[in-house]
Write a structure and sequence with these properties.
The structure is a single chain. The chain is about 30% helix and about 20% strand. It is α+β, with helices and mostly antiparallel strands. The chain folds into 2 domains: about 170 residues, N-terminal domain of MutM-like DNA repair proteins, CATH 3.20.190; about 140 residues, Helicase, Ruva Protein, domain 3, CATH 1.10.8. The strands form 3 sheets. Strands 1-8-9-5-6-7 form a 6-stranded antiparallel β-sheet. Strands 2-3-4-10 form a 4-stranded antiparallel β-sheet, with helices on both faces. A hairpin with a 2-residue loop joins strand 2 and strand 3. The longest helix has 21 residues. The relative contact order is 0.15. It comes from Frondihabitans australicus. Its cofactor is Zn(2+).
Length: about 325
């Protein structure tokens, strides 16, 4: 499932490529035909992400709200405009260490090697970003079960497999956002930290579950949950109301840092203080980007104890029983 940084990057791409443009909205699959008709012909005026949800605002007073869930993805095709994070990466999304070194992810997360050539490119954005075959004809025919197609003059976005896809009023959007926890890229540092501490401190639920609760903090998924707890040397079973306030606020500060890094890099890089060589290796292979995530049975990178994996509310929780004792 895409975590917060991926959804913010998708919103960035919509702002760069669609905002200010009238669009044709259709439902090639047919399941969203009524909703598409309400948005068809309107102009997109804004795109924003809060946690794992994205909100496209149209000039007719309506929003398209999308939660990708486990299987959702956006496919962009055509003549792309670049969002600021892509420009800063010299047109390479998800394959650069932001220091001018071109890297190719061995797992395929290489996105665009050159976003400006050819002009009619195709890319899929979800949990990862992958460059697809270039297109010869614009707009391309929909591939698969496309729930929503958003077509501007030179660029198209196709949505497939979302958990949630609705047309909403401003009041409905406000109500949805009000139910979500703070997001470091939406809330101010102090407001976000205060809201996070308030929601953690009032419950006995273990912190390992609270970090996955989108009403407590927006955008954290399984990878970031495991890595944040390890970086804080915090036992995931600690009740929220027993986590010291300074630790809760440090968690928020670290989440802010990791989220911003994820948006910039297009990768969940959660290791720090690496040598230049180790950093380059980590950016080439996702297996080298994390302290504990997906490392059950392997030695802890710090103490050598085998990393544990357990089921927690139906999701896999990874942690070190020594470093996080």
């Amino acid at each position: 499932m895409p975590e917060g940084h991926s959804v913010h990057r998708i919103a960035n791409q919509f702002r760069a490529s669609f905002v200010g443009k009238p669009v044709e909205v259709t439902s090639p699959q047919g399941r969203f035909a009524a909703g598409a008709a309400k948005l068809d012909g309107a102009t997109i005026v804004d795109a924003k992400a809060v946690g794992k949800q994205m909100f496209l605002e149209f000039d007719n007073g309506l929003f398209l709200t999308v939660h990708l869930g486990l299987y959702g993805s956006w496919d962009f095709a055509g003549d792309f405009s670049l969002d600021p994070t892509t420009r800063s990466a010299k047109g390479r999304m998800g394959q650069t260490n932001m220091r001018g070194t071109e890297l190719v992810d061995s797992a395929g997360e290489d996105s665009w090697k050159s976003i400006g050539a050819p002009r009619r490119a195709r890319m899929r954005m979800s949990e990862s970003e992958k460059r697809e075959d270039d297109i010869d004809v614009f707009p391309p025919e929909p591939i698969g079960a496309v729930r929503v197609r958003i077509l501007a003059e030179t660029v198209v976005a196709d949505l497939r497999g979302p958990t949630k896809c609705d047309v909403a009023t401003p009041e409905e959007v406000d109500a949805t956002i009000a139910k979500l926890g703070p997001d470091p890229l939406v809330d101010s540092p102090k407001k976000g930290a205060d809201r996070f501490y308030e929601r953690v401190h009032k419950t006995k639920t273990m912190i390992g579950l609270l970090l996955m609760d989108q009403s407590v903090v927006a955008g954290v998924g399984n990878v970031y949950r495991a890595e944040l707890l390890y970086r804080a040397r915090l036992n995931p079973h600690t009740p929220g109301n027993e986590v010291p306030e300074e630790t809760v606020r440090a968690l928020w500060k670290d989440w802010t840092k990791l989220l911003k890094s994820g948006v910039e890099l297009g990768q969940m890089m959660t290791m720090s203080h690496l040598s230049k060589k180790s950093y380059a290796a980590a950016m080439k292979s996702r297996d080298d980007r994390h302290w504990v995530y997906h490392r059950e049975g392997l030695p802890c990178r710090t103490c050598g104890t085998n990393i544990l994996m357990e089921e927690a509310a139906g999701r896999k929780l990874y942690w070190c029983p020594v470093c996080q004792a």
